Amino acid sequence: MIIYGAGMAGLLAANSLRRFKPVIKEAQSALPNNHSALLRFRTANVGATCGIPFKKVNVTKAISYEKKLHTTPTIFFSNLYSGKVTGAVESRSINDIDISERYIAPLNLVELMAGNCDIEYDATLSADMLPFDNTVPVISTIPMPVIMKIVGWHNIPEFKFKKIWTQSGIIDEPDVSVYQTIYYPDPMATHYRISVIGNVVIAEHSKKPEFAPGPVLMGALRDDFGINATRIADIKSSEQKYGKILPIDERLRKEFIFHLTKEHGIYSLGRFATWRQLLLDDIVDDVAVIEKFIESDAVYDISLHSK
Questions:
Q1: What HEC string does the chain produce?
Q2: Residue among 305, 197, 267 nearest 9 (CA)
Q3: What is the pTM of this model?
Q4: How many angstroms separate the CA atoms of 97 and 183, rounded?
Q5: Distance CA 177, CA 107 (A)
């Protein structure tokens, strides 16, 4: 088995499909910065699949607007937040700020997942390698707009997406062990969500931050979380190109996924490869569907699933 992409979806597929002895082919020269935002999940399925223990916690949430905290979502907050995050008005996580049960991954989740995998770096997919025969299953996590160009797809739509930027650090002083998230719908603030996960603080931005991470994180902890952090260690900043994606025509999306499998022997996996909103929890189920297709080798089954 060959898996293109050593992002979270590719690593998850390789861990789940170990019996196929998969080789991951990654275009970059090192493990990508896979998941710099929130390493928390709705179920324990990802951890169970990879043999990595997750911590079950309850997350408290609130909304910050005009220097006040609100614990009730409104239509105003929802639409303002959605426009800020995606550029469109659609349902977002801010609509549910009840205390939520979540599963927290270890900070080195990516390294732990990769440790179980055979990864070849500087390995890309090109048109002259196609089509693949059905003797070796191939899974792609390559973003749909990229692989459409590789295979010469005839009707490439406009793919709309927004970058996101993250700033994170470990709260060294004082000792902190809480699980909290605050949403920021105000379009004047670059950050749209800040979370404290244990002793880790993570700010997610819809625009490139204007200020260094330290003051931003310490200011939010003090003003909104009531945490007077005197020291934040291991401060990091990162950027994700396909941070927030907007849907394309659903019929075309499914048509291309089916074409890629039928004509080129490639199964699509993950949020960017299938171009739809997905949680990593959902990808566990999608891997199981792909495994079923591989075992059945039935184009009829695949056709039904793509409708």
A1: CEEECCCHHHHHHHHHCHHHCCEEEECCCCCCCCCCCCCEECCCHHHHHHCCCCEEEEEEEEEEECCEEECCCCHHHHHHHHHHHHCCCCCCHHHCCCCEEEEECCCCHHHHHHHCCEEEECCCCCHHHCCCCCCCCEEECCCHHHHHHHHCCCCCCCCCEEEEEEEEEEEEECCCCEEEEEECCCCCCCEEEEEEEECEEEEEECCCCCCCHHHHHHHHHHHHHCCCCCEEEEEEEEEEEEEEECCCCHHHHHHHHHHHHHHHCEEECCHHHHCCCCCHHHHHHHHHHHHHHHHHCCHHHHHHHHC
A2: 267
A3: 0.88
A4: 9
A5: 14
pLDDT at 40 (0 to 100): 74
The full set of domains in the chain, from first to last, is: 2-36+106-157+246-306 (3.50.50.60), 55-104+161-243 (3.30.9)
Residue 94 φ/ψ region, left for φ over 0, alpha for ψ in the -120 to 50 degree band, beta for the rest: alpha
For residue 230, which of 247, 211, 242, 217 has the smallest C-alpha distance? 217
With a CB cutoff of 8 Å and minimum separation 6, the contacts of 222 are: 228, 229
Tokens of residue 13, six digits? 């597929």
pLDDT at 42 over 70: yes
Q: Render pLDDT for 252-265 as a digit per residue (tens, 0 to 9).
A: 999 999 999 999 99
pLDDT band at 7 (very low <50, low <70, confident <90, very high): very high
- Residue 195 and residue 38: Cα distance in Å, rounded? 8
